[in-house]
Design a protein that fits this description.
This protein is an alpha+beta fold and 132 residues long. Helices cover 20% and strands 14% of the residues. It contains 4 helices and 5 strands; from the N terminus they run ααβββββαα.
Length: 132
């Protein structure tokens, strides 16, 4: 990523300020399958009684890209990071799916105006509210 990107584009990777702060105060704890990097304050700096933890996204800063095992560590649900704990995903955990809201691939329900369909007519089971 170029220097100009790091100065002006905060939503894609890290900015220069975050890079400097991480270099000065952070200790790399681990990475996930998407190459997001997870850090912890190396000096034990605490905010609200908890040691500060953060993630540097590999690409778009999208919170849903944090997998469950790292989410638990980031939010102090687990004290030990999944790299040291031997985390095994549960059978109900699904792989990441990007948030497509606001894109042309977003889910459109039946009858959506964006889908080009017509909504079904009223069935008579609805009565509009009228002020008295």
């Amino acid at each position: 990523m170029s220097l100009l990107h790091e100065v002006f584009i905060w939503w894609n990777g890290q900015t220069m300020g975050t890079r400097f702060y991480t270099w000065r105060k952070g200790r790399l704890v681990g990475t996930d399958a998407q190459d997001n990097r997870y850090y912890e304050a190396k000096d034990g700096e605490a905010i609200g009684g908890y040691v500060r933890r953060w993630v540097i996204y590999n690409g778009l800063a999208e919170a849903s890209r944090v997998p469950p095992e790292w989410h638990g560590w980031l939010h102090h649900t687990f004290d030990v990071p999944p790299t040291e704990d031997g985390y095994v995903p549960r059978e109900w955990e699904k792989p990441h799916v990007p948030n497509l809201t606001g894109t042309s691939q977003a889910w459109r329900p039946q009858g959506s105006l964006h889908k080009g369909a017509r909504r079904p007519g009223a069935t008579g089971d609805y009565q509009a509210w009228r002020p008295e």
